[in-house]
UniProtKB/TrEMBL annotation:
Coiled-coil annotated residue ranges, if any: none
Catalytic reaction list: D-gluconate + ATP = 6-phospho-D-gluconate + ADP + H(+)
Involved pathway(s): Carbohydrate acid metabolism
NCBIfam families: therm_gnt_kin
GO molecular function, one term: gluconokinase activity
Pfam families reported for this sequence: AAA_33 (PF13671)
Signal sequence segment: none
Xref: Gene3D superfamilies: P-loop containing nucleotide triphosphate hydrolases
Organism listed in the record: Corynebacterium urealyticum
InterPro entries: P-loop_NTPase, Therm_gnt_kin
Lineage: Bacteria, Bacillati, Actinomycetota, Actinomycetes, Mycobacteriales
Name used for this protein in its record: Gluconokinase
EC number: 2.7.1.12
GO biological process: carbohydrate metabolic process
Length: 185
């Protein structure tokens, strides 16, 4: 079996897999990373301990704390973008303002919004592997969530579909965006 290769486009494209807790962001990001050979970031890994404690209580960090965290995610994306590397990032990016911070990254930012009903997401959270997040966080995130606007670069995908289909749709849509913005990969 051959190793996946990393294309080095003129305009690196950052696939931001976004959505609330339980939507499968990390799973999808890892699969895309394995398939494409792109570096993958679980954005929660960049949260300071103080933010994680807030999240563990089922709350969303203050706007200032959240923006500081998003800026560190953006900076990670930019570092790779300057090196000509496209990336995959699992990050909630719940509001347009959050996504605007990520859009400042070097390269093209393409959002893959994974969405589902409260019941579906809640059930998925109860079976998640890894860091447990309280149901209160799901409620808070759903209240904060703004779906992608028509002028934002991205696609919305239903989480009840098979992961392989979600990956195929995400990559095909991102490839279309990459082509439309002059990349050569």
């Amino acid at each position: 079996m051959t190793q996946p290769t990393q294309d080095k486009p003129q305009n690196p494209i950052h696939l931001v897999i976004m959505g609330v807790s339980g939507s499968g962001k990390t799973t999808l990001a890892r699969i895309i990373g394995e398939r494409t050979g792109r570096p993958v970031l679980e954005a929660d890994d960049l949260h300071p301990a103080e933010n994680l404690a807030i999240l563990d209580r089922g709350e969303v960090p203050s706007k200032a704390k959240y923006v500081n965290w998003l800026e560190s995610v953006r900076d990670w994306m930019s570092e790779h973008g300057r090196a000509g590397e496209s990336t995959v990032v699992a990050c909630p990016a719940l509001t347009r303002a959050h996504r605007e911070v990520l859009n400042e990254a070097e390269g093209i930012t393409f959002f893959v919004h994974l969405y589902g009903t409260f019941d579906v997401l809640s059930e998925r959270m109860s079976h998640r592997i890894g860091r447990d997040m309280p149901q209160e966080l799901l409620v808070a995130q759903l209240e904060l969530l703004e779906r992608l606007h028509s002028d934002e670069l991205g696609i919305q995908l239903d989480v009840t579909r098979k992961p392989e289909d979600l990956v195929d749709d995400a990559l095909a849509s991102a490839k279309f965006a990459e082509t439309a913005y002059g990349s050569e990969s």
